[in-house]
Structures are given as C-alpha cells and as structure tokens.
Write the structure tokens for this entry.
Amino acid sequence: MRLGGAEIAAATGARTLAAGSTEPPRRAVIDSSNAGPGDLFFGLRGEHRDGGEFAAGAIEAGAWGVVVGSEHAERLIASHGGGVTVLVSAGSGPYRRVEPEVDGPDGPVWVFAAADPLAALQALAQANRRALGARVLGVTGSVGKTSVKDVARTLLPGRVHANAQNFNTEIGLPLTILEAPDDTEILVLEMAMRGFGQIAELAAIAEPDAAIVTNVGPVHVEQMGSVEAIAAEKAAVIDALPADGTVVAPVDAGELEPHLRRAPRVLRFGPGGDVEAGEVEIASGALSALITAGGQAARFRFPFTEPYNLTNALAAIAGGIALGADLVGMAVRAADIGFSRFRGEQIKLADGVLLVNDCYNANPVSMRAALDHLATTGGMRRIAVLGGMGELGPESVAHHQAVGAHARTQGIDLVVGVGAPARDYDPDELVADPGEAAEWLDSHLEAGDVVLVKGSRAVGMETIAEELQAARGEAP
C-alpha cells in the first residue's frame, strides 16, 4: 500500500487514537487469524460477530495497525494504559502532553476508530486506486464476467492486477485494489451484483476508465424483480465512467440497450460488431480465430474450444482496445490464458472419463452454453449432471424445464438431476445430493464418457468432481 498513517486517517475519515510506524502498511486484511507483521486489520461488523473484537489478536500477531469501531478502539487504548510524552507547540508556548501508545511485538501500532470500518475500507481502496495511477477496466454482467476477467488479465499489456477467485464484492473488490503491487499499470476489477445499488457502490470505489458488461439475463431476478431491473443495475457502471470512458457491450445487448445511450463511447463485440471473430477453427484442444477490430486483424490461438469462451475472449479484447492495447500484442499473449477454478475445468480421470467441472454457478444462460459445448464433444456418452439454479423467482420451474428440454434437443445422452429443484429438468436419474450423485456416477461411468457437472455453488456441486477424482484418480 502507498498510504501512510496520516493519509489513511484522512482517506477513511477515521480518528487516530494511537500512532505507529512511519512506513505504510503492507496490505489490508479482514481476518485476524491471517494478520501478520505489516498488516492493517479492518474489524468489519458481521451478522453475528463484530470483527473489532479480534483486534487485540491482530496486534499480538504483529499487525501494523487496526481500523475498528470506536468502542473497540477505545477499549484497546484503555487496556494498554500507557503513553508517550511529546512536546507540543501552543499559542501560549510549548507544553508536554501524553499521547496514547499501543505496543505490538514490533513496536507502536496505529489504532484508528471508524464509524463504519467497511466504509473506511472502501474509502481507503478508492484513495489507493488514485495513488496507484493505474488504468481500470471494470467487468460486470450476468454471465461470463469471471472468465472475461481471466482472459483480460492475460491479454492486457504491462503489469496487470485482477481479483482473485470471487473477490468481486463490496469487501473483496477493495481488498483487491489494496493488494495491488506498486508497479501495477492496469487493474481488471470484476464487479458482482447481489442486490440494488451494489454495482454503483463498486464502481464508485473502482472508478473505471472502461467497463465491460458481458450480458444481461435472468440472474438474481428473485431479488431484483425483472430482467429490466437487472439491466438498470448493471448499467450503473456506465455512470461511473469518465467523459472519455468506454463501455463494452454485446452486439445484441437486449434490455441493456436503452442504457447504452448515455455512455460516452460504446464498443460492440460479437458478429457484426466492432470486435468480431472469423475463420474459426478447432483442432488439438485449441480454438483459432481471426479477430478484427478497428481496421486491424490478428489471428488468435486460444487454449480452449468452447464457443462461449470465444465470446468471452471477444469481450476482453474489446476491453483491451478500449484501453488502447495493441491487437497483435494481445494475440501473442492469448496462448497463456487460464481460467479460475470450477469454470469449464477439464479433468481426465484415470479410466478414460473426461470430467468437465463447471460448477462455480449456474443460470439459464450459462446452463445452455455449457450444454451446447457438451453436445459438441466426442465420447461414448455425453452425461449432464445438473444441480438446481438459484434466485430465479416465480419463473424458476419454467427455467428448469426449459434447460432440461434444451439438453434433450442438443442430444445429451443422460441427464442426472441433483436435489429437489432438479426434478424440473425431467432427468433420467434424480439423486438427493452431490454425495449420492458421486456414488451413482462412480458405479455407472464407462471409459469414453464425457461428464458435465454444473449447478449453483449453494448446491455444493464441486464435491462431485472431488469425490470422483478421489475414487478413480486422474490420468497421468
């Protein structure tokens, strides 16, 4: 981190109750058990516990300082009971005053009292983003945003820092900014939405120079009420762009389209867009395509074969174009693309079964895309193991039925439903939970089968792949 104690107090609006090192902290942490020398611990208030209760433990572990609620900060000062005498200049002359001091293993520790430690974390992240001077690419959307982030992180030039795994929330995003190395040139920040106002909140912290909206679909419709409301929420990132900013959107933007009118500049990706793919070839586990953008063309060779990941790549490339990246340079880096866990992860089991572990999350759009890809794979049988899709509101049954019908249309040989909501897929086999699914698969899989495992993380679908790997082993 670039900011020292006085700057942290100014950025967060927190009161400084005790001062420590003149050096800035190493990083921000929210788990006292992970705190160590040089760390700035934020005691966030949770549903059941207040993280400020664990500030003393963070200090004992060597923390550089703590940001906690006023009551916890004052308790820390009172419990240490010591101080340092300093000479202070005043209008009537100098006088001596005792300043509170809280000692840790490595010396005095900063203690900041904040009305809302989470708001302080977010404000500090915004200040650090400005101090870094890096350009920011925001990524949001109903489907594919993590994969787009992963692709962009690889394709963009220079030192790029991006969210790890699911650090895309009101807590994870500021932590991502605060852990960015000093030489970071581009921040790629994924922004997740779980309710009203969240994209605006994250965009205000990130202050993106350009933003990708991958798509808008019936994800979180249970909370938001309609796809139109979801589009309006996603579009909040447009309002955070600077006057010369760019929003990247699909050619067919659907319910997002009316909101694009207020964007300073729009780049479209997909067939007929500003960034599109042609001459697509699939061979030897890779996809090759001629990408055109802004009058330039370059052949990209991607380490994947899924058509939906080509769409994700086009979005990421458009994001790079928005930030001034060179198309040819991005093509050179394409071979190094790697995806976060549970997103189309291919695992070859020792007995000749190919397992496609795509269980990070599930919604009607991503389910269809995964089934489309499964339908194109070779193998003796193509088996879809599908858990329920969450947060779909009153249309949940209809969405599940439509996905099940799509699996049949695509010629999937066997559909295994996991959990009660999965009965609406009209599966060939319905099991109660992931453990039972793993047992059923272990006794029925044959060499040459291709198995897709997909469903919302709340169902725990990732354990199916873990148990099959443990039972059968991976191919060398």
Residues 83-88 have pLDDT under 50 and may be disordered. The chain has three domains: 5-119, 133-336, 345-472.
